[in-house]
Amino acid sequence: xxxPELTITWHLPDGQTLVTGGWSRLNLLAHADTYDLELPQKxxxxxxxxxxxxxxxxxxxxxxxxxxxxxxxxxxxxFEQGERLACKARPLGDVAxxxxxMIPPDLRDIEETEGASEPx
Length: 120
Ligand code: FES
Hints:
Number of helices: 2
CATH architecture: Roll
Distance between the termini: 47 Å
Strand content: 15-25%
Order of helices and strands: EEHEHEE
CATH class: Alpha Beta
Number of strands: 5
CATH superfamily: Beta-grasp domain
CATH topology: Ubiquitin-like (UB roll)
Mean pLDDT: 92
Bound molecules: FE2/S2 (inorganic) cluster
Helix content: 10-25%
C-alpha cells in the first residue's frame, strides 16, 4: 500500500488510543481491518446494521451518502450527534474518532503474560 496520506487517532472503548496512517480513498472500517482493529460489522459494510458506528472527535469525514443518511434517519433516536458509519465514512484529512464498541478478543489469540493470576 502507498505511504499514508493522513493520520487517524482511534480512541478505543477501553481507554487506549491508537494512531495509524490513513488514506482518503478508504473508509474507516477498511482502515480498522488494515490495522487489525476489530470493529463490529454485522452487515458487511452495507449501511444496514449500524454496528460499525464511530463518533468523529476532530477532523473531517466524507459527507454521508444516501444509504447512510437513510439508516440514520430511520433510527434517528439511536444516533447521537457526530456519529457516523465506519463502513461509509472516509477521512478527508487527519481525524480523531471514538470507537463505540469492539468485538471482544478471542482468548485463543491472546498470550497471557507470565505470572498472571489464576482465576479463583
Ligand atoms: S457494517 Fe453494517 S452499517 Fe456498517
